Amino acid sequence: FLALNGLLDGKLKWRSMMLPDRYIDHGSPKDQIEEAGLTSKHIAATVLSLMGKTKDGLKLLHRNPTA
Prior knowledge:
Layout: H1 29-36, H2 40-50
């Protein structure tokens, strides 16, 4: 609780991202990771929020390298 809500932050901002402490229904690993909020989009959103950025920052990640 303390770490997830930033109450332990000092000079380093840190959030643990882990499987929830509840049962996740059977399904494909992809579906389970999505339900747990551990996809690359979830991770990027968490990092951006810690940096004080918005989802607009993700546009840099989706540039077309061949354009």
